[in-house]
Structure prediction request, 526 residues.
Amino acid sequence: MTGKMPIFIFDTTLRDGAQAEGISLSVTDKINIAKSLAKFGIHYIEGGWPGSNPKDAEFFARMKSFSLKPAKLVAFGSTRRKNILPGNDKNLRELVKAKPDAFCIFGKTSLLHVKDALRTTPEENLKMISDSIRYLKKTGKEVAYDAEHFFDGFLENADYALGTLSAAFSAGADWLVLADTNGGTVTEKLVEIIKVVRENFPGAKLGIHAHNDCDLAVANSLAACDNGITMVQGTLNGWGERCGNANLASVIPNLMLKKGYKIHNFTKANLKKLVRTSRYIDEVANLIPKKEQPFVGISAFAHKGGVHVSAVMKNPVTYEHINPAVVGNERRILISELSGQSNLKIKGERLNIDFRDKKVVAEILSEIKEKESRGYQYEAADGSLKILMLKKTGKLKSYFDIKSCRVIVEYFMKNGKAERKCEASVKLSVKGKNIYEVAEGDGPVNALDNAMRKALLPFYPRLKEVSLTDFKVRVLNPKEATAAAVRVFIESRDKTERWTTVGVSEDIIEASWKALLEGILYKLVR
Prediction:
C-alpha cells in the first residue's frame, strides 16, 4: 500500500528471549542463532548485555570474527548509574568495548520506578538518560532508546513520561522505542498514547516493544505500525520472560500479507525462510516447536476432518487463509478416527500408495478408527500409517519373520553402587535363514534395537544409516495404575528423512517393540 513507511525488525531473541524460563543458550548457540537471523533478513539483532554477564561479553568478543551485514549486531544495556559520569559507568564502558554495530539502552519512564527501583530524583533520571545517549553517540553509532514501562508511566504521569523521551531525543537517540514492559496495555489505550507521542515528536523514529502478558503483543505491534511506528521489537518465536514477547514469526507475515506493509529490504524470498528459521532456532535451544503456532507450526495448515479435507483439496482457500508455501510451510492431511475416505486417498498419494479399490480404502479406514479407539494415534505417526496401508493393500514385502524375542534386565551391586544391565535376544527368519542374535543396551528398547540391527545388517546394510532420535511414552488410562495401557512413539531418521512409528500395549516393552519394528520396516520399504 502506498503511503506506508517501511518497517524495520529488531530481534531480541538472544537477550530478552533468552530470559524465558527453560531456555539456556551457550555462546555457540547464540552465534548460530544470530547468523540464522541475519540470513533470514532481520535488520537489528540484539546479542545481549555485555556488561551484565561473562557469556554475553564472550559472545560479542567472538562475534568480531563474523559479519552479519546488512544486519546490525546490537549491544544492550542500561542508562548510567545515578550520580556518576557516564565514562565512569562500567556497564556503558563494556557496551563500547563490545564494538557492536549499534546500541540499545533502556531507561526509566515511570516515576514509581524512579523512586522505588532507582531510588533517585526525577531530575537525575532525566540526566541519566541524556548523558548515557550522548556518551554512546560519541562512537558515531546508532542508538535506540527503549523507554521501559512507557505506557504504564504515561498513565501515571504523562508529562514526565514525555519528558523522558524528550531527554533521549535531544541527546541524539536515533530511535525512541515505547515499551509495554508489563504487557498489560490493551490495544485501544496503546493507540491513544502513541498518537500523543507522535504529536509531541513529529520528527522522531518510533519503535514498539510489546510483551504478551495479555496475549496482545502481536495485535499491539500491528496497531502500533498502523499509527506511525516503524520499528517492531520482538523475538522470532515469541520467547521472553513470563508470557513472552511479540512473536515476530506472526508479526512479519501479518505486516506483509495481511496489512500490505513493506519491510525494509525484505522480499518474498526472505518470507519463504520463515518456517526454516523458526524451527532452527527452537532446535538450537532444544525446544519442541509449538505445533499450533500460526504461520510456522506444523499444525498451522493441517486438516483432519473429512469435510475439511474434501473441501481444501478442491479449493485450498476454503480452509486456508494463505498458501502455506509463502512462509515455507506445507499443507498436512491428518489421519484419525475423524477422517473420511478423502483424507486417506490423499494421504496415500503423498505416501506413493494408489488406492483403486474403494473396499480396501473402507477397510483401512475402519482399522484406523478401531486401533485409535484402543490408543493408537496415526496423525503423528506417518511411518506406522504407511506400513498399515501397505499391509492392507497387500504390497508389504516380507523382509523378515519374528520367531521370538526376549529381554532381560539385571540389577546388581558393583563397588557398593546399584547398576543395571539390559540384554535382548531375537530369533528371526531372514531370506530363508534362521538368525539368532544377542545384544546389550542402555535400556531394554536400546538392547532390542541393537539385537535387531545385528541380525538384519548382513542382509540389509543400509539399516546402518538409521538412528533413533526420539522416544515418547504416554500413559493412556492412568486410573488403571500398573495395568494401564501405554502409547509409545519412536522417531527415526536416516540421511534424508525422519519418520515416526507408534505402538500400544499394557506392556511398555511390547509397545516399544511394536514401534521399533515398524520403524525398521519403514526404512526397508524405502
